[in-house]
Write a structure and sequence with these properties.
Helix content of chain B: 25-40%
Oligomer: heterodimer
Number of strands of chain B: 21
Largest sheet of chain A: 6 strands, antiparallel
Structural class of chain B: alpha+beta
Distance between the termini of chain B: 57 Å
Largest sheet of chain B: 10 strands, mixed
Amino acid sequence: MKSPRHQFILLGLICQGLSWDDYFLPVLNLVLWVICLNWPRKNLRFSPLAEGILLLGGCAAAFGLGRVFGKNTHFFLGHGLTLLQLVRLLRPLDRRETFFTILIALFHLSVACTFLFDLRFLLILLASVILIPRVLTEWTAQGFASNAAPTIQVGPRLDWFTYPVLVLGSLVAFLALPRVFLGAHLTTRSSTATDSGTLLDSVLDPAHSGLALSGRVVMQIEGQDIGYLRCFTLVDYDGGEWSAPKKHALKRLDDVPRAQTRGYEYRRVRVKEVASLGHALPSDGTVKRLTGSFFGRAYQNNYGGVVSDMRWNSRRNTYEYWTSRHPHPEPLSSVQRLACTQFPPASPRVLAWLDLVLDGLSEPLAQARKLEAWLRNKFTYELGAPELNRLHPLEDFLLHQRQGHCERFASALALLLRMKGIPARVVVGYVPTCRNWSGTAYNIRFKDAHAWTEAYFPDLGWVQLDATPRAAEETDRRGLMDLFQDLDLAWSSYVVNFDGSTQYRLFAGAVKSFGEAAAWAKSNLLNVAEFAGLFALLLCWRVFHGRATVRPEGPRQVQRDRVVAGQFYGQLLELLRQRGLSRVLSQTPLEFLQGLQRNALPSAAEVELVTRYFCAARYGCQTLSSDQRKQIHAALEKLATEFPLKASKPTGRRSSGRQQTAAPCATAPAE
Amino acid sequence: MTFRLTKTGRLILGVAALFYLAALTSQSSLLLFPVGMLLTCLGLNAAYCWRSLKGIELRPPKSDYVLEGQSTNQSWQLVNHGRCRAGFLEAESRLGCLFRLPTLESLQEISLRPDPVFRKRGVFLHSDLQLSSIYPLGLVQVTVRHDVPGEVVVGPAIYAAEAPRVAGFEAIVGGKQKGKYRSLSGADFAGVRPMQSGDAVKHVHWRSSAKGLGWMVKTFDQELAGRAAFVLDGGHGGDAEALDNCLRAAGSLMVAALDAGHHVQWVDLARLESRLILPLADIHTLLEDLARLSPSPGSLNPARLDLALGSLSSRNAVHFVLTECPDFVAQTAMELHRARRQVTLYLPQGTPSPGVSGVPVHFYAADQVLEGA
């Protein structure tokens, strides 16, 4: 498991597993990897035919199971190779097979690059940056060590700057390599359903779904004074649920000439989760023109919603539109009026409550505002409120529970307005509340999904009413998850969707900037020359100073320190000899040291220090720094002062050299 | 300094190209990240290799002497003067890979012995030495040519051979041939004789003198050494392998003659310089001279042969160790034989017998001298 190759294989297995689902297969591959590596290694060897059959079996199983469980079957070959990788973990491999496993892991990594578009890819990339050079180094070292001296250890030791350089190289390649999109669009896994009913169920009341307080960014919108973004308009109410009208007229928006958009406000939307939008294209106000990159045609229905026909995931899922926040009121057709004024029979208690609230108001707009304010001020916003009475939901909401989420408020207000003869409808969409970190656009998240009410007044047209208390108290709070989501969106926008046109713009901008810089330099030649001269001086100083200070450890220095270390060691031996401890010629310095340590010499630490530095300089070609010399001096002085002289000096011939001595041996050679 | 991709490097480059093609057809261009990573690995590898080799100094011995089939005993010094660690170093010469070194730390000096067995006779200069590195990823190989002084002299292989015939025996201290006379010095005690005028006291044999027979002195077997001359044709046919076989045979015969305590004189028809090697002398010079011989086509002709024979002592037994045997060589051998000279012909195996009556003809192969016809 310590082998970088095994770790790289694991990375490949996880990448391949992610093509199946997010948790099950990656974890299963991890478990199998651990089991296979810890299984007793036997010299199993399958024939190439058996391995081929295994590979084909794995492919077929992945394809079949993928169809049964509705998983992605594009990568069945990778699953077959996964099986082969796992089987090959059970036995030692020869050199060629080892490299083949590395290639398979690279293939698995490439698989992840084709579908893993979120921030998890960064983790995969980081792991690859660390592992790929280590794997190659290990493989090369193994091949080299087979013929090399066995005493020299070979390890995959790379300098620290290898990894930043690899990251930089990857980035440069990503930015600079020319790209052309030749393939067909692939569908990605959708995170939510696309129809309006499900959107209401799972998004508007997040406490009842897996998207509770979800901060996942759906899209990003740029523009000034952005209002509520309409997705769906719900008109028909059957007593229990709201639904969009089955029949409505459509008007094309994408073929409107750009000249007709003068005076309209411009919006640009970058969509991250195309699948979560269904066929709707969220927009505020009344849209005049709308074009985009990920759908065929855009239409506006007669209820104000903008929808598209066929859509796909492109490299840049963007659309732009021109809208009017305050359009001229258009007359309501009789069909629409009829549809927007229908309501189920109301109970006397509700009617009484309505009369009580309106308190004699007769003007429709005043009635609507009074009801909106009443619901917003007297009721409570509550996610996950208890279910309403199925037979009398409105009465239950208004008179008993008096709490709920936005859908209940919008629905209740629309019904109350209809009871007063005012055409009303429920609108579902998003409320832009939170700007991104750069402040240039609004991030629209799942938790920004909202429902509100629109009421029609002949002289004003459709007026937006929001009775939900939360909408009034929305604050622009940011948390760590928001930052993460912003990063995810930036990753999606600027990396995943980095296409040829963006690349061209980038290079064009760079060339333009370079041209401007050159022009500036030409006009400020003197300043540039001064700066260049200063830089050259700095460089010269760095070079010469670097030679003087950074590289003192040349061979001559090594040789000099070798001599100096020998002199220090000679002093040490002389001191020890004066104290009755002599080294015999057959002993190495380390053996002599071990002998002293066995005899519990009082100043063994000092002796060890001097001996170690001597060995490092004499045999290890290391230099002695000034600190080390000071340490040696201190050790020798301490030895001379603290280690008492022997009472009677040995009578042997005084040694002139540091290692020649005729004194009796005080230590035995190490065994 | 040359850069080239290794086999692994070419494979990785191919993988990168495949990934790039896949990226072109992919929904997103994220595959370009691994492409960049692999390409950067190639660049990094080249930089690492360049840095590894930049500070390496190779110090081979100035001259090294080995025989064919042997590896050198002398160690080479490798010093890393650079600030960075060097690795995966491989030294190559015309002989192939000399040694491989996994790592060499900064400022480290290491001694190592080249691995290869020298199969071919000749002189190998260190000027064609190449040091390469694939450190650390094994994708790019950088090679540096090291123009260092020195050479490896590979002498011909010496195999066991019967000592050749010799002539012109003369007394010599340490000679291994026994003469029919006796002398006052030597290694083999032969007996005693009465002391004569001029005999030194140190030659007295005290034990026999004490028996009352008078002064007796010790005598020893006479020690003689013969003379053998070898004539080499210097690769007359221009075939290097034939010359190598010829020189192996000549070298083996000369060493056998020297081992038997004879003088050896030899001459190469290409250079016409006769060399005399005394018995008990070091054969190092002989082997070095043989190692430095190179094929000289056309060197075997009557005029050169006469000059070569003229440069040899007439007391020698003459041995022609040739790669070919033209007619004039046979005639010359017959003339020498008729002049009561000891003559022997050594020819390559498979050469037709020259038909010289009375002159022994032996044949040699790559690793032995065969019995004569």
